[in-house]
Automatic annotation (TrEMBL):
One of its GO terms (molecular function) is metal ion binding. The gene is sdhC. The heme is bound between the two transmembrane subunits. It comes from Rhizobium daejeonense. It is found in: Membrane. Keywords: Heme, Iron, Membrane, Metal-binding, Transmembrane, Transmembrane helix. This is Succinate dehydrogenase cytochrome b556 subunit.
Amino acid sequence: MANVTNNRPLSPHLQIYKPIPTMVMSILHRITGGALYFGTLLVAWWLIAASTGAAYFEWVSWFMGTFIGRLILFGYTWALVHHMLGGLRHLMWDLGYGFDKHFSTKLAKAMFAGSVVLTLVIWVIAYIVRA
């Protein structure tokens, strides 16, 4: 009897697996969950600045209005929307729906596209309301 395990890797990794949409969305869901911890610090910073005084609040508002600040806020918005949609996908799975291979692949692709579109819609509405 031949030992068929000799040519197998000891620990499968990304060089072995071909990335598929559901796998990528699972990884992104975990990354966005971690990013939300840091994004929540931004919200806390903003609230602390608002309670500290007008001068500090104006400085924080200035920073958030810079290109870097807006880029960070845009990324936080996308992470929040993407993680929310991932949570809805997991809720659907918890209810016993969406396990078909082709449907789950389409859902993963739609989730990514939806997160980008919803983020852009949120930012467009924010700019319209602000003007």
